[in-house]
Design brief:
83 residues; alpha/beta; 3 helices
Length: 83
C-alpha cells in the first residue's frame, strides 16, 4: 500500500478507477495482478480521452478495445485495423 506522504506533487487515488476519472490517459507501468480485475469499460466511461498505454503488456488488447479504450501495448507488434 502506498501512502504518498513522501511523494511531493503526487496524488494517491483510492482505486485504479478513481485514478482514471477525468484522465486523458492511463499508463500501466506495473504488473500488479489487481489491474486485470479492473472494470475497464467503467474506467473508459469516466475518462476524458480514452487512451490506455500498457507498458507491461498486462492486458488483452482485444478486450481493452472492446471496453472502449484506444489501447497501445509497448513492444507489441502493430495490429492491422483492417483485420
Amino acid at each position: 500500500i502506498v501512502d504518498g506522504h513522501d511523494l511531493h506533487g503526487v496524488e494517491i487515488a483510492a482505486s485504479p478507477e478513481a485514478a482514471a476519472d477525468g484522465a486523458d490517459a492511463v499508463v500501466i507501468v506495473t504488473e500488479w495482478p489487481e489491474l486485470t480485475a479492473v472494470d475497464w469499460s467503467s474506467v473508459a466511461a469516466s475518462m476524458r480521452t480514452r487512451v490506455l498505454i500498457d507498458g507491461r503488456n498486462l492486458l488483452d488488447p482485444t478486450l481493452m478495445r472492446a471496453a472502449g479504450l484506444q489501447y497501445e501495448g509497448i513492444g507489441r507488434a502493430a495490429e492491422s485495423l483492417e483485420d
